[in-house]
């Protein structure tokens, strides 16, 4: 069983930056895809960014140019650098991992709150 633990959330003013970190309890090399999702009150959970083994990266349109996802397999970690934060980025951010087994295996962290004040 893979466990994911997030850190780095908090309160920041609009225009500020935060860096989220997610550590995996197992070798990150067996987790084929790692990413970040977020969920604001009253909204569904949505993809923020994901990175697939081999380097393919996807971002939500709303964060392109402001957020950067990166992965360190040696440290079993994935990061989300968030710059130029906006109040609408306020949400609980969840780390996600996917193993491309049959069937696929999905793992989630407990979530970390990000609050952006105007």
Describe the fold and architecture.
With 118 residues, the protein is mainly β. The model has no long low-confidence stretch (mean pLDDT 94). The strands form 2 sheets. Strands 2, 4, 5, 6, 9, 10 and 11 form a 7-stranded mixed sheet that branches. Strands 1-3-8-7 form a 4-stranded antiparallel sheet, with no helix packed on it. It has no helices and 11 strands. The radius of gyration is 14 Å and the shape is globular.
Put the structure in a nutshell.
Helices cover 0% and strands 53% of the residues. It has 118 residues and is mainly β. The chain is globular, with a radius of gyration of 14 Å.
Our measurement of the CA-to-CA distance between the termini, rounded to an integer number of angstroms, reads: 40 Å
The number of strands is 11
- Class from helix and strand fractions: mainly beta
Let me know the largest β-sheet.
7 strands, mixed
What is the C-alpha radius of gyration, as a whole number of Å? 14 Å
Strand content: over 45%
Say what oligomer this is: single chain
Measured as a percent range, the helix fraction is under 10%
Global morphology: globular
Task: Please trace the helix and strand order, writing H or E for each element.
Answer: EEEEEEEEEEE
Overall mean pLDDT stands at 94
Low-pLDDT residue intervals, each spanning 5 or more residues: none
User: Count the helices. How many?
Assistant: 0
């Amino acid at each position: 069983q893979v466990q994911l633990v997030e850190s780095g959330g908090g309160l920041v003013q609009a225009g500020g930056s935060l860096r989220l970190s997610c550590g995996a309890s197992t070798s990150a090399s067996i987790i084929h895809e790692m990413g970040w999702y977020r969920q604001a009150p009253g909204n569904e959970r949505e993809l923020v960014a994901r990175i697939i083994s081999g380097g393919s990266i996807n971002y939500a349109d709303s964060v392109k140019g402001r957020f950067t996802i990166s992965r360190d397999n040696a440290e079993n970690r994935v990061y989300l650098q968030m710059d130029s934060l906006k109040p609408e980025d306020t949400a609980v951010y969840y780390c996600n991992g996917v193993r491309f087994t049959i069937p696929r295996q999905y793992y989630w962290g407990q979530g970390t709150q990000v609050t952006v004040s105007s």
